[in-house]
Amino acid sequence: MRSLGIEYISVFGMPPVLYVQLARDLGCPYVSTALKQMSFNPHGYPGYSLRDRATRAEMMAAMRDCGVSISVGEGFLVQPGVEARQAAAADLELMAELGAKRINAVSFEPDFERNVDQFAKLAETASSFGIGTVVEFVPCFAVADLPTAHRIVRAVGRDDFRLLIDTMHVGRSGATAADLSAIDPALIGHVQLCDAPLKPRMPSYLEEAMYERQVPGEGELPLLDMLAALPREGMIGLEVPLRSQAEAGIGPRERLGRCVAAATDLLARLE
Length: 271
Hints:
Elements: E1 3-6, H1 16-25, E2 30-33, H2 53-66, E3 69-78, H3 84-98, E4 102-107, H4 112-128, E5 132-136, H5 146-156, E6 161-166, H6 167-172, H7 177-181, E7 188-193, H8 205-211, H9 223-229, E8 235-238, H10 243-247, H11 252-270
């Protein structure tokens, strides 16, 4: 059965050591992370930055002790008028120190050819640190759907530059499990799992995606079909931010414990 990880936006600013310990306690050997704390912080966690050397050292020690590693480094962008190579180099060095296996990048660049050029340069730079790159399509961003992201990955043509598949973005962008099945599995580098209604619950897609998704199996996405269409090896990150529950005082262990149990049940049904 595929391993599960906990994704960065699911824990709403939890400090790195506590985050790593939570993943261990839930039986998840992977976490994703950005270098700065998420601004939404309903539990009042103390501030932190992984650009601070001591904080990185504390997280790395916790990961060694807990048997947890970083699946994805978040926070990398392709933007108009910005050279991705130069913008990302310093943060890539820090992600390499933390042992991140890959970085995730999204795009605000509307021009297809410039996306290809900038993603190629970003992937090349990440590779120099021993890090792979995935591109995430997001319906409200410039690379908004699976066909566009797939074209970019094929155009860049690097083995270490692949697709990130987020089940909410798949369903809301109009893609299907059949569309996922048509993609070469070797081009899929990371999977993020959540559930969601088929139609928006909020005026802002980004707000819903960042703060209010649903536990796998509690929404309307055809998750079993999607998972069946995806590679059977590798890991799956649980990206399930539940803002209303956090604001109601439900802690991350209870919120994400339900997600782990639901995802484990889905994967067992596939097996």
